[in-house]
Amino acid sequence: MQFNSEKYPLTDLTDIGKKQFTKKHLAAWPEMVQKVLAATEFSKVFLWVTRDMDVMPQWHRENVVLAGDAAHLALPFTSQGTNSALDDAFELGKLLANANADTDFNALFQQYHTQRAVAIERYLQFGRMLEQRFLYPEQFAQEEMPLPLAK
User: Fold this and answer.
1) Which residue from 8, 44, 65, 112 has the least number of CB within 10 angstroms?
2) Quick one: CA torsion of 123, 129, 130, 133, rounded to 10 degrees?
């Protein structure tokens, strides 16, 4: 369940509070949803506050390089977390496949960043745009929904 916490504040973070909040806001949903709610163990419910971060100027320091969410955290609206991590691994792997003892790893890791940063920036901007439409749908009621980013 995703919700706008500014519009629908969840103040009671106990298991009972989470259950009451969820049941209240999903009361009119179909029977299938009600069955899922009835089977949910609210002691195991995770409250996830989503965040993102701008593209960093590099994803490495000395011989350590970051990939996936560790390098570039995007909002879940993009559904690109796993895909980006796989793309990172693929691109980094191609670069490392040709590495040897004489390789300038600082330059290699910067090349990896250069290759991936443009796509990551697009995912970040797309996620931020979707977040605004999710949080404030009334402001975008006249717009058509943009197509998702897909390869």
Assistant:
1) 44
2) 180
Q: What is the spatial distance between Cα 130 and Cα 52, in angstroms, rounded to a whole number?
A: 13
DSSP-H helix ranges across the chain: 15-25, 31-39, 81-97, 105-135
Residue 134 pLDDT grade (very low, low, confident, very high; cuts 50, 70, 90): confident
Instruction: Kindly list the domain boundaries of the chain, sorted by start residue.
Output: 1-49, 60-140
Distance between CA atoms of 131 and 51, rounded to whole angstroms? Answer: 11
In the chain, the N- to C-terminal Cα span, in Å, equals 27
C-alpha torsion sign, points 91, 93, 95, 98: negative
Distances (CA, A) of 56 to 43, 47, 68, 90: 36, 27, 13, 20
| pTM confidence score | 0.73
Please tell me the class of the 60-140 domain. Answer: alpha beta
CA atoms within 13 A on the CB side of 11: 3
Cross-strand partners of 60: 65
- From residue 71, how far is each of 85, 122, 124 by CA, in Å? 9, 15, 13
Residue 150 CA to residue 34 CA, distance in Å, equals 32
Higher pLDDT, 7 or 39: 39
